[in-house]
Amino acid sequence: MDMILSINAGSSSVKISVYKTDQSTSTPTQLAEATVEGLTAPPAKLKYSRGDQKIKGQELSDISSQEDAFKYILSHLQSDSGLPELSKTEDIHFTCHRVVHGGDYPRSQIIDKETYHHIEELSDLAPLHNGPALSIVRAVSEILPHAKNIAYFDSSFHATLPKHICTYPIDQSVAVRAKLRKYGFHGISYQFITDAVASYLNKPKDSLNIIALHLGSGASACCIKGGRSHDTTMGLTPLAGLPGATRSGSIDPSLMFHFTHNASSPSHSASGHLHITQAEEILNKNSGWKSLTGTTDFGAISSSDKEECKLAFDIFVDRILNYLGPYFTKLGGEVDALVFAGGIGEKGARLRQEVVKGVECLGFKLDMGKNESPADEVVTDISAGDAKLKTLICQTDEQLQMAKGVLDDRGRFVGKKG
Ligand SMILES: Nc1ncnc2c1ncn2[C@@H]1O[C@H](COP(=O)(O)OP(=O)(O)O)[C@@H](O)[C@H]1O
Ligand SMILES: CC(=O)OP(=O)(O)O
Ligand SMILES: [Mg+2]
């Protein structure tokens, strides 16, 4: 029996699921799931579930980084007497790491010295993500020296973007040399959504056309044509496209030079391996919902009457709608479903209501009751009976997607150190 620890370091949370597998099964069995959330809206909170045992919203002090959150969760798991499988550190065989920017890697990689340094080099292109993920890889190497570390990249799913979609219209000699192109992110989630929705609709994956929205602390949309990424809103970095908890999303690139005279000087958080500018710091860490409302909690924003919260909510709906029409036409109107996922997509009934209202003219329409209280399923249909096109909620699970990957790829990893 193999034990897998699947670690998803997001910009505001760390989610870890524990699975056991054996040679005869093709699906990992989940034993426990722990989340530390609210890293951008302290105090951080713990969510834990193992069988019937549940903890929700327990406030934690002194947890402010993804590395702190990882260490806290690991000791919580190892001290749970109901989880004897993890009591010895050598019992954990594989650790999967969600790494947001994987550059040109088209699939998962064992993390050896070379891949580690390559991921580190890409840190400037995902300043909220790659560095924190690597801090967890280092902690695993110290605390769990027997575990094999495998990186799963958010960017890999988008390796299928057509050239005319991932190329920026800039001097191509610079673009090619510096690898400046659209990469796209949230791909582990989009792969999970593609598999889950194809299975729910009973369609072969290669004929599935969907518009998927992963709306969490970072938010993006993806146009999935024939089961593959055809276009997505994030770009060279996860800053492009939709706004998020602390990110501006797409703005006029000239804006920054009018916002501050120090746009190109190094930011305070630039360090040994992170070389970001003040402009990048402002747009990644001090913009989005935080700058408009003072909170990064979109649940609180959605239910507030304050003018600034209403504005933030309306901006999000508007920016999402900016992509739905174009993606609908890129799919020639042959759309199997509009799919909501991520913390906001799965829990934000009012946001779904307003977004779908904006695309009613395309044939989407919600059943208000189902939208308010959707079933607790992996995929739930929330469309009205007379809707021409389906709207679904998918409870995406990046940890499970990575753990399944370990089973599929085990042959590739045998005998390799990492
Ligand atoms: N009821 C709700 N309505 C709208 N948004 C919610 C609700 N509950 C939680 N959220 C939001 O979900 C977001 C976190 O999403 P998640 O996908 O878990 O984040 P991460 O990007 O860290 O993985 C937070 O902005 C949180 O406020
Ligand atoms: C890519 C990205 O923005 O991820 P997250 O939403 O987890 O911050
Ligand atoms: Mg996430």
UniProtKB/TrEMBL annotation:
Organism for this UniProt entry: Bimuria novae-zelandiae CBS 107.79
Name used for this protein in its record: Probable acetate kinase
UniProt xrefs under InterPro entries: Ac/propionate_kinase, Aliphatic_acid_kin_short-chain, Aliphatic_acid_kinase_CS, ATPase_NBD
Residue sites binding substrate per the record: 98
Pfam families: Acetate_kinase (PF00871)
Binding site for Mg(2+): 8, 398
GO molecular function, one term: magnesium ion binding
GO BP field: acetate metabolic process; acetyl-CoA biosynthetic process
Enzyme Commission number(s): 2.7.2.1
Broad EC category: transferase
UniProt keyword Kinase present: yes
Cofactor: Mg(2+)
Listed pathway(s): Metabolic intermediate biosynthesis; acetyl-CoA biosynthesis; acetyl-CoA from acetate: step 1/2
Family per record: Belongs to the acetokinase family.
Lineage: superkingdom: Eukaryota
Protein residues bound to ATP: 15, 214-218
